[in-house]
């Protein structure tokens, strides 16, 4: 189950795992607190028809008692409940039966964009049997809130497309970015950096989100309309990334970037930002890190990769990325689920 079903890395992660688990004989149902039409469409592409609570709007960072009431009858027959995002696992902690295993995943640091809900977090954590923290910020928060360390595991997200070949034709560009066009992903910072580049390479920005209109206006204002392509969201960005000279991930907040790992797996140099869990991904020479919110530093790094002054360990990056192939990640989660189930379940296990 997930608090918010939309196009995004967390949702892609759980949907890829779910599809792999279904192929492995694990029955899977998808429950969502809130869903956009694009999120529902994405789930269907992965073979899941979501049930959506939906009345209360975006529940990613918000507890909702109505969501709890809606969940209770829908969780009764689940062997394992895996809940994603604070609003999801908080509600699941109230709704699950006393002996049902509850696994929580947090894909972002707890920055509390609306209000500080640390007390609600502390209330729900004792009911969580296993917590997948996808970055050091999430790990620190739940440890500080009293969750025993032996219940915390490093979150892992499956990354698809690492065997892709480059896209041919006019859609290619030497500088590529791909991700949600929301403030935390920093696409506006990338546009400011492109305007500062000494070289004038074509740039491909793949994505969609609430900053769409603002980004297109910024592109026009900076005189970049001919250089920066914005074709929108692509379900499979891998061929566009495979043909790039550099992949840029200019996030303001990033626990783990599936886009960056995809680029690493394709042998493309990655530039990212020194935020939350990103240094763990790009460390040891696997990528290049710049400060967040710094278009000057970002432009210098892009120019440095394009002119050969800055290099990354692409072989090491490929090895690192290999651990996130979907089949391997699905095995890790299935082993976790089965370790928490009744040793003699009746029939095939059911995951929610």
- The total count of strands amounts to 15
The CATH architecture term of the largest domain is 3-Layer(aba) Sandwich
Count of helical segments? Answer: 14
Output the CATH homologous superfamily of the largest domain. Glycogen Phosphorylase B
Unreliable parts = 344-348
Would you tell me the overall average pLDDT? 91
User: What is the beta-strand fraction?
Assistant: 15-25%
Order of helices and strands: EHEEHEHEHEHEHEEHEHEHEHEHEHHHE
Cα shape: globular
Q: Order of strands in the sheet with the most strands?
A: 11-10-9-12-13-14
**Main sheet?**
6 strands, parallel
The span between the termini is 6 Å
- The domain tally reads 2
What's the Cα radius of gyration? 20 Å
Helix content: 25-40%
Say what the CATH topology of the largest domain is.
Answer: Rossmann fold
Structural class: alpha/beta
Query: Under the CATH scheme, which class of the largest domain?
Result: Alpha Beta
Task: Spell out the key features of this protein.
single chain; 352 residues; six-stranded parallel beta sheet; alpha/beta; Rossmann fold; four-stranded parallel beta sheet
Chart the SSEs and their pairings:
Layout: E1 2-5, H1 9-23, E2 27-28, E3 31-35, H2 37-45, E4 51-52, H3 65-74, E5 81-84, H4 86-95, E6 102-106, H5 118-124, E7 130-133, H6 136-144, E8 152-154, E9 175-180, H7 187-196, E10 203-208, H8 212-221, E11 228-232, H9 238-242, E12 246-248, H10 258-265, E13 270-273, H11 278-282, E14 288-290, H12 295-306, H13 314-322, H14 326-340, E15 350-351
Parallel strand pairs: 1-3, 2-15, 3-4, 5-6, 6-7, 7-8, 9-10, 9-12, 10-11, 12-13, 13-14
Helix pairs in contact: 1-14, 3-4, 4-5, 7-12, 10-13
